[in-house]
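Batch manifest, entry 17 of 40.
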Amino acid sequence: MKKLLSLPPNLVSHFHQIENVSRKEWFCTSDPVGARVGSGGGTIWLLESCRQSEQADTSFIQWLAQEKRILLHAAGQSRRLPAYAPSGKILTPVPVFRWARGQKLSQNLLSLQLPLFEKIMEKAPESLHTLIASGDVYIRYDQPLQPIPEADVVCYGLWVEPERATHHGVFLSRRNSPDTLDYMLQKPSLEELAGLSGSHFFLMDVGIWLLSDRAVELLRKKSQDGKNIQFYDLYSEFGLALGQHPQKPDPELQELTVAILPLNGGEFYHFGTSRELISSTRAIQNLVNDQRQIMHRKVKPHPAMFVQNAEMHYRLTAANSDVWIENSYVAKEWELQNQHIITGVPENHWPLKLPAGSCVDVVPIEENGYVIRPYGFHDLFAGALSDDSTRFMNRPIHEWLQQRNIQLEDFADIQYAPLFPICYSIDDVGLVLRWMIAEPELVIGKEIWERAKKVSANTLSDEANLSRLVLQREHFRQRDWALLAHNYERSVFYQLDLDDAAEAFVKADIPLPAALPKETSLFTQMHNRMFQSRVLQLSGKPFQEEQQEAYSFLREGLIDTLSDRKQWPVLNVYKDQIVWGRSPVRIDLAGGWSDTPPFCLYAGGSVVNVAVELNGQPPLQVYIKPSTDYHIILRSIDMGAMEVVSTWEELKCFTKVGSPFSIPKAALALAGFIPAFSKETYSSLEEQLKALGGGIEITLLSAIPAGSGLGTSSILAATVLGVLADFCGLNWDKNEVANRTLILEQLLTTGGGWQDQYGGILHGVKFLQTTEGFCQQPQVRWLPEYLFTDPEYQPCHLLYYTGITRVAKNILTEIVQGMFLNSHKHLALLSDMKAHAFELYKTIQSGDFEQFGKGVAKTWEQNKLLDEGTNPPAVEQIIDRIKDYCLGYKLPGAGGGGYLYMVAKDPEAVLHIRKILTQEMGRPNARFVDMSLSVKGLQVSRS
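Output type: structure tokens
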């Protein structure tokens, strides 16, 4: 999906290097020099420029239809936000949200904007190839995107209060057809909105428009005068001609179909002015005030102060409100008040006093020069010298000039006035700043200003040395890393994307932070050790010890949930009784991986899965009976193995690699047969078994191949625990059994989540959700079984054993490491998986078989994004042959092999699939297995 950006001219040549992005995926240009083209004309200019650079010989409409594109308009002069005029508002650094995980210290407005636009385009129909958005807004949302209809123009809007809508474009729809645009208004008055409220709904335009190729072609026609681009505005001209009763009727445009979509759960933050830079950032930071969701313990003197990529030697207080300091060095000699934006200041020791409302911007130019640009917090950088309303440094420009006894040549627009001197000495920069801001009597400052070459705000943006600007920012950020890590309790360090942080530490050779004190929270210690491990790994040094320490803290936290729930097993059967347990397996339909610690511990998990029997039987079975000898006998029918356990030491060796009895040994431990989990005290296992009244024989049967992807090991463990609970009178219900299975897997060091055991031991189709915390007990919502049992659909669910196996632990290690490191890539995908699980839950409730199949297909795509090894070539070869007959398909579990679950389009497609996989693609051991919905889950009975 190509991104097309309209940028300030100076940024175009530097963008790819600054952002480290591919020219193949990102195209940049600026608006035509000396011409005003408007947002409509600018859109066509951007598209045409991209076409000319890629395929000049291809017609515009043919080129347009080739792929989806995201267009971002960010080429403005940024007069009301001077601090980021040279580098473009779209690259404005945005502080890490205090309540968010996985963000990067280097994040900017573009990196925050883009994910929403990409999700919209992924969801958009194939007929919509072009998305247009603004580069100076951040639009956040916390609810799933709704389906996007087929239309020529699709616009997103927000439900807002009328007063806010008066400052923006507004979509009006009749109350009896809220999805259809009646007409659009630009900045309507409150009176207009009040008069329309009885007949219309209104949504505030957030500037996200999707256009069909037909709509783009008409926009092109309106934006061109012959072959030249002319001024044409997308919002005030094209937009006002849309709808059933447009304000500016245009017969051609009125034929376009238009859909208006509310962005449910959406929030709109504008970064267009100095004031909005701070107010929008403050609003975002304060979205969450629940202290349980804010990792660090810092309390700022005032909520509207933001410092990033900076070195501070001045202590801010509650009096310093509305302060933004970025890419700057603030010396202890400075004096600050409020309403300051300080950017680009190099290391200094100036005795600089900033009155309230004063801002400082120092911009590198040439190889070693600096442009000194002070300004007022509310300056608009617009107006003529002769106009009394033209302001500079919070006062009329002529007053500022008069105070300093200087004159400027007359100008029609202060944006083009040569006000800002170029200095080549840090000391000179400080002297000029003092004179320009608060010390008009400072003669030496005036002399430097008078003899210096001076540039306008416009020239400054065109000629700034952006490489030096970025280099200085990176220099300050490198210094910040070590400080943030050291002051972890009062910083965002351990909620950052620690994979990104590790790369920064290695690149700059920053010393590793030490291991944290024992009283530090387990979560923070987990992050600390995995971060150390990752830095060592990237440095080519041994890292496994630190990695295992991170896992040990995770195990400690989960096992500790049982510290006050120790067990006292007693013999709860007759001497000749057998307790028999059997369980189905599970197929995960959506949300898999979101149930895996540590992700679910701090974000909760959401999973949809189904319990199934194979060939009419529950394939996992466990038998327990008393023994007259005081030891424990373990047998596996499918593995042909047996072991006799006589001591605690033998029972505790459940972490031994390759042992066929790790699961029952760990289950016995959790049932109270080792001291750590026992209420009673014994001198030996033999003594405990004598007190029990006899030994124990456990026999396992797993009638399913290893590496199946059906949750076999977890469900077998849950079955053992369930049978032990009945045998030993432990009174565990299925929730307790499943919860202890999670802990059992931690004892085994295999890791894993909770969805496998809940998916198997609980019957039917269900939606499982947990909240954050070490105690993971899902809320269970059972779903209708209609799509799985109705005669029309039941045959369309196919399960095929591929004969390819892969060990889940290898996959698990890679992905869990990303969870420990708050990897943005992993956390974003896992959050999407949770959201998709909720969507599939609603789909199953609605009984829409086709959408269900497509939902399974989306799950598969998400799994592949999370782990490339999910779909090896051998599996892809199978899928390629049958995919045209399926609505969806996936490998259950971690993927990479095992079983392939398919949702066929119809019974005829089922025949084609069976023929292809049995007759044309026969593989060793590959076979179809009949699957049926389990209506009972785990069953435990006695002889």
